[in-house]
Amino acid sequence: MNDAGVPAVAAWTGIGVPRAHESAALHVLGQATYTDDIAEVKGTLHAALGLSSKAHAKILAIDLAAVRASEGVAAVFTCEDIPGTNDCGPIIHDDPILADGLVMYVGQPIFIVVADTHDHARRAARRALVTYDELPAILTPQAARAAGSYVLPPMHLARGNYQDAFEKAPHTLKGELYVGGQEQFYLEGQISYAIPKEDKGMLVLCSTQHPSEMQHVVAHALGVHSHHIVVECRRMGGGFGGKESQSALWAAASAIAAARLLRPVKLRADRDDDMLVTGKRHCFHYEYEVGYDDGGKILAAKVDMVSRAGYSADLSGPVATRAVCHFDNTYYLSDVDIRAACGKTNTQSNTAFRGFGGPQGAIAIEYIIDEIARNLGCDALDIRRLNFYGRDANNVTPYGQVVVDNVIHALTAELEASSDYRARRAAIAAYNSSSPVLKKGLALTPVKFGIAFNVTHLNQAGALVHVYVDGSILVNHGGTEMGQGINTKVMQVVAHELGVDMAHVRATATDTSKVANTSATAASTGADLNGKAAQDAARQIRERLSAYAVKLYGGDQAAVVFAADTVHVNGHQVPFPVLVQKAYLARVQLWSDGFYATPNLHWDPKTMNGHPFSYYAYGAAVAEVVVDTLTGEWKLLRADALYDAGKSLNPAIDIGQVEGAFIQGMGWLTTEELWWNPAGKLMTHAPSTYKIPGVSDCPEDFRVRLYENSNVEDSIHRSKAVGEPPLLLPFSVFFAIRDAVSSVGGHKVNPPLNAPATSEAILNAIAAVEAAVAKVL
Description:
Blueprint: H1 24-29, E1 45-51, E2 57-63, H2 65-68, E3 73-77, E4 102-103, E5 109-115, H3 118-125, E6 129-134, H4 141-147, E7 155-159, H5 162-168, E8 171-179, E9 191-196, E10 202-206, H6 211-222, E11 229-233, H7 248-261, E12 265-268, H8 271-277, E13 284-292, E14 298-310, H9 316-326, E15 336-344, H10 358-376, H11 380-387, H12 408-418, H13 421-433, E16 438-451, E17 460-467, E18 473-477, H14 486-498, E19 505-507, E20 510-511, H15 526-553, E21 561-563, E22 566-569, E23 572-575, H16 576-585, E24 591-597, E25 602-604, E26 609-611, E27 615-628, E28 634-643, H17 651-670, E29 701-706, H18 731-743, H19 759-776
């Protein structure tokens, strides 16, 4: 690393300081190019998908005559027209691009219609006549469990002797919890633009988090090699996991049509079609049992989780694995029995979503602790603190990884003090005692989140760095930009390594012909992996330039410093572009590739033990809400969040990520309700029926800070990931609502509140608490 210094430049740095998003000005001016903004090639056609209207049925006949006769239609393709493999499953090949004789959910694509305009294609797709023989449909995870319907074998992780510890525990509790799914609701919908090239080649411009996976899927669908396919993505208008595996359908469909017609084809999903076709965050149903002592220490914990996987496996296995590995959250659990199953249902195949099962695993133990505290008449924060992992003892997770950098005690204490938690708790109690209708609630919840892909081999990345003769720098890496600022951070890393201002560095579109075999930009690893790879490439160039500078000016190569656009060598101060020009004339290589693979990771999926995470990110949040007990309406009054980003590469971007994750997670737990009718159709498939948080839902008092820390692992400049972990911070909102509802019964009854805590759900919980209190009286 370029961390050496001389007095004149010792304070210079390219990292650890706020920098504007590299595309911020383009976003504001409306000049940022997304896939649909790319100028269309002459002869471009537009595609739409014909969708199933049944949840589970055999296809007896398809009459496409009216579709073909529709205005502007050029062609219609079914599964029989796919040149190669009819599959877009990312792990298990159980996910057809187009239905082949059997439909498994309402919205499953059956055919592709290609027309001269997007509107003509979409209208034509509605005119197909499909004859079905309906079959029984399974729609909920509970029904899947009852039927033994799973997309994968169930998982089981155990430590100690749960049953013995449970039977000996002074106190026990049992219960159920349901936590709903969530639509990614990216601003830019799914879109792919396929352009045929010579010799079976295909350029696919696609809004995707995983260009290499799209390359593989398209190659298989067309029956060609990967080198025939180039996938490019400059930026996405949001992804949140929904464009990790599920952009494959759209990429494959557009490429199939383009290959058959030898004309460019764009497939842009309408919002309704997008929501009907694509998978969401997995909803989970939990059955739990816990034993604890008089002080609230957990002695035994058992949870049986089943998710709504949908009709195919997709990424449900890794999601369930991460849920299992995050059930502990920040707590040491000595004797545990953790089970997880992926229920096969006749609904959209659920997929990645920010947090990737981690939030679904962790919320269960938080719900349990909330119940323990109420049962014992204690503040839930005290029960949480009592069960925290230790630093030197009680520091091994149920899956066998040692927690070596546990800062949750100090971080929570800092937030408790800065948020005036105790004083506000007392003030809220006083308020509620004199307020019969409006009730306030308060909660502080912690986070421990493991960083790395569950699958070890995915933890790798590559990058290319080019230094041009004028001293400007171009970087290309395998990560994808979806608004989270990965390009900005990678540019900062390269600028810091070469000692130049970030303005001299430019990041180009992610392109499978430049960096091959990339992993998805997911699991919060984007900046970690690609930043390290880019740093490796830039370091090699810097070392070559250092050696050349010493050859010109003398001195020790180890003493050469690159900073503030200047190379400091043996008393000479040479502008970076000048040294570059001299090096070029001397035939010094001014470009390099870089590579990084996260060390010390291993995982045994059979025993569910190992070291699956590189490190843990920590955080905590306090939320204060007010609930109208007559209507179930509520308002977040204030939120305080403290997040451990290690030595942040860019505090401005990281704080923005925490804020965004908090509001998105709050939406998942409160307003965003997915609802299927009895026939299996998703009815919340548009902004008019699916409610993400708005500006008015954000708290007027929103305090977000980064915790002062340095990553114990050798991450990129000792920073920590910030994409997914903060989504768990709004657990505090859900439990503050539950606290307010609990006050209706004098905190003597555990409110049966599921997520999302909609106004209807809140009213139902209030009624249950009132009924329970009345029964006792």
